[in-house]
Amino acid sequence: MDKRLLFHCPQAMTIARQMAELDGRIELGVVDWKRFPDAWPNIMIRGFDDLRNRDVAYLASLDSPETVFEQWSVMLAIAEARPKSFRLLLPYFPTGTMERIDMEGQVATASTLARLLSALPPSGPGPIPLYMWDVHALPIRHYFGANIAPRFKTGTKVLKARLEQEGDVTVAFPDEGAWKRFKVLFSDDQGKPLFPFVICRKQRHGDKRIVTVIEGDPAGKNVVIVDDLVHSGGTTIECMHAMKAAGAVKVSAFATHGVMEKDAWKRFLNAGFYRVWITDSCPVTAGLVKDQPPFEVLSLVKSMINAVMDG
Which of 39, 120, 126, 289 would bridge with 295, disulfide CB 3.0–4.6 Å? Predict the structure, then answer.
């Protein structure tokens, strides 16, 4: 098989290098990410003339609005070069929590970002495959136009592999939304849960979150709270308190996307968790917490390699 040329944004440099080191079929492309004095992008894609003969992928990180324009510019330039094939990897779809509007005037920015990506021209033998991990709402796939083919993947596989080292585990969902999103991934082909489940309900009173157990029993258990993303950490921490109040022996947490803006990860350092697992889908946060107990970063690198090489 010909080598796949992988370009990446600066935030994803470490992940891209790990991918190339683990799989010799991946060759790293080079982009010079510079800026003019007025702060607008001054970008050069090295080896651009060769792209039409190559299988190309781009690893994006759109977790910061400031980088969306420059990264989309690179995606557009690559697509317009008409490579033999082109794949996009977007581990974290950052506007996923704004997938709907409840009143006139609200902006569904999930739709906005999907439209922006859908404006890329077709490249290769059909629509551009766009790989995303644990999106917040599956209907987001319908926001994309004909030029993009969404491919949904999950980070829970690396968690389940890690849990084999933890012995008997009970999986808790902090709200019914998380249970609906993840129950299939923690069940067998017949729909039987692979772990005992605890389902919680979350209520908001102003800035305060109240989490209560509505199904299952965490008493005496090693509980792992599972969700797709963590922003401020408030819900996850309140869920941990609810588990301990109900008699859990140890409480850990997992979120595929550790967004944790404004240094919210620091709230977890002495909160009482046994483990806090996130993936490297948000590479900036992953870099900050990798040596900070109780955090442990579970890498999506092998899953990303599969997306680049085989889909």
Answer: 289
* pLDDT tens digit sequence for 219-271: 999 999 999 999 999 999 999 999 999 999 999 999 999 999 999 999 999 99
For 163, phi then psi, to 5°, come to -70, -20
Give Cα 56 to chain centroid, integer Å. 21
- Residue 276 token pair: 């806090």
> Is the separation of the CB atoms in 256 and 229 below 8 Å?
yes
CA distance 299 to 281: 8
CB 62 within 8 A of CB 68: yes
Strand order in the sheet with 4-8: 26-28, 4-8, 55-59, 85-90, 128-133, 148-153
Encode pLDDT of 126-137 as tens digits. 899 999 999 988
Is residue 262 left, alpha or beta, with left meaning phi > 0 and alpha meaning psi from -120 to 50?
Answer: left
Q: pLDDT tens digits, residue range 82-109? A: 999 999 999 999 998 888 888 898 989 9
Angle between helices 13-22 and 301-309 (to 10 degrees): 70
